[in-house]
From TrEMBL:
Similarity remark: Belongs to the phosphofructokinase type A (PFKA) family. ATP-dependent PFK group I subfamily. Prokaryotic clade 'B1' sub-subfamily.
Domain spans labelled Phosphofructokinase: 4-275
Protein name: ATP-dependent 6-phosphofructokinase
Entries under InterPro entries matching the protein: ATP_PFK, ATP_PFK_prok-type, PFKA_ATP_prok, Phosphofructokinase_CS, Phosphofructokinase_dom, PKF_sf
Classification of source organism: Bacteria, Pseudomonadati, Pseudomonadota, Gammaproteobacteria, Enterobacterales
Catalytic machinery residues: 128 (proton acceptor)
EC numbers for this chain: 2.7.1.11
Binding annotation for ADP: 155, 212
Molecular-function GO term, any one: metal ion binding
Source organism: Buchnera aphidicola subsp. Tuberolachnus salignus
Catalytic activity: beta-D-fructose 6-phosphate + ATP = beta-D-fructose 1,6-bisphosphate + ADP + H(+)
Length: 325
């Protein structure tokens, strides 16, 4: 019988995490379940940083970016003895189950705790959209909006100065943010983790378009593919065209969540409580064809992630210049 649950946010924060916390607390309270907020991800479980959450503490947080619980990266949580200590601390606080809001790394922690006998449910919170078992993660749409607004501004100055601008976008090893922004902003080229990158071919394409009279270029690139400054210098040298490198960085993780993320977080938060009450754990929540669904975390694998957005890129015959999808 579940009387008290814990909730934590882990890994990179994402806009909409607060909306998910709010939904979990309100759904739990309706079922007479107490909710303990755990500060700073798995670190807080070990450091016993617990605080009771009630309706007053969550009712006004829906529109806040970040997470009121704080988050962290805590690599020590991969160790079995640390996981055992976590379960001990949770039992000591009379917590019967744990809701983990985070990405694929955080899910692993939830999976192992469940396998060790402590029931956990995962809610996908990351801007990267790199989690299997869901078409969208909480925070992706907000981050995409931020990226699109930034590119629009960079386009203005690229046009005025007739420059090439290359923009590095987050996503870890997932190109969903970059590819979606590419379409939304009608950019010139996009460099993605799913497509082999050859800088010579990119330069050839730029030169071809320069000859046709094109004056400015916007190139998007997912992080971790190529050093953006080296690439920018290379392009400038080979094309004789002024080139600037921009890393959008952590601005992509902040801000008030857009409506889609608020609603997604709310639906997933409510669903997670219903799932726990049915005695189901070791699962993560997702959205598929606009239905909220769940599946076993252990059936997910980071390497298998191929969202429908990534599939668009496979349809393109041209490596860097996507004209249809
Ligand atoms: N293999 C693992 N086993 C146990 N815990 C893990 C594992 N991988 C990650 N974690 C925990 O989840 C946290 C967040 O993972 P990370 O990959 O950094 O972010 P995200 O969950 O957003 O993808 C880690 O700092 C660690 O505490
Ligand atoms: O904030 P940090 O620790 O520098 O991490 C940066 C990474 O976090 C992210 O913003 C989000 O990643 P996670 O959701 O996996 O934590 C990635 O896009 C980026 O590579
Ligand atoms: Mg991740």
């Amino acid at each position: 019988m579940i009387k008290k649950i814990g909730i934590l946010t882990s890994g990179g924060d994402s806009p909409g995490m607060n909306a998910a916390i709010k939904a979990v607390v309100q759904a739990a309270l309706k079922k007479n379940i107490n909710v303990i907020g755990i500060c700073n991800g798995y670190t807080g479980v070990i450091q016993k940083k617990f605080k009771l959450l009630n309706d007053n503490k969550v009712k006004n947080i829906m529109n806040y970016g970040g997470t009121i619980l704080g988050s962290s990266r805590f690599p020590e949580f991969k160790q079995k003895n640390i996981q055992k200590q976590a379960i001990k601390n949770l039992h000591q606080k009379n917590i019967n189950a744990l809701i983990v809001i985070g990405g694929n790394g955080s899910y692993k922690g939830a999976q192992y705790l469940t396998e060790m006998g402590f029931p956990c449910v995962g809610i996908p919170g990351t801007i990267d959209n790199d989690v299997l078992g869901t078409e969208y993660t909480i925070g992706f749409q907000t981050a995409l909006n931020t990226v699109v607004k930034s590119i629009d501004k960079l386009k203005d100055t690229s046009l005025s100065h007739q420059r090439i601008i290359i923009i590095e976008i987050m996503g870890r090893y997932c190109g969903d943010l970059a590819l979606s922004a590419f379409f939304a902003c009608n950019c010139d080229f996009v460099i993605l983790p799913t497509v082999l990158f050859k800088k010579k071919i990119l330069v050839q394409e730029i030169l071809k378009n320069l000859k046709k009279g094109q004056k400015n270029f916007i190139i998007l690139m997912t992080e971790h593919i190529y050093d953006i400054h080296t690439l920018s210098n290379y392009i400038q040298k080979k094309t004789n065209k002024e080139t600037r490198a921009i890393i959008l960085g952590h601005v992509q993780r902040g801000g008030s969540p857009v409506t889609y993320d608020r609603i997604l977080a709310t639906r997933m938060g409510y669903y997670s409580i219903n799932i726990l009450l049915k005695g189901i754990s070791g699962v993560c929540i997702g959205i598929k064809n606009n239905y909220i669904v769940h599946q076993k975390i252990k059936n997910l694998s980071i390497h298998k992630k191929m969202s429908f957005i990534q599939k668009w890129s496979l349809k393109s015959k041209n490596l860097y210049h996507y004209t249809y999808f």
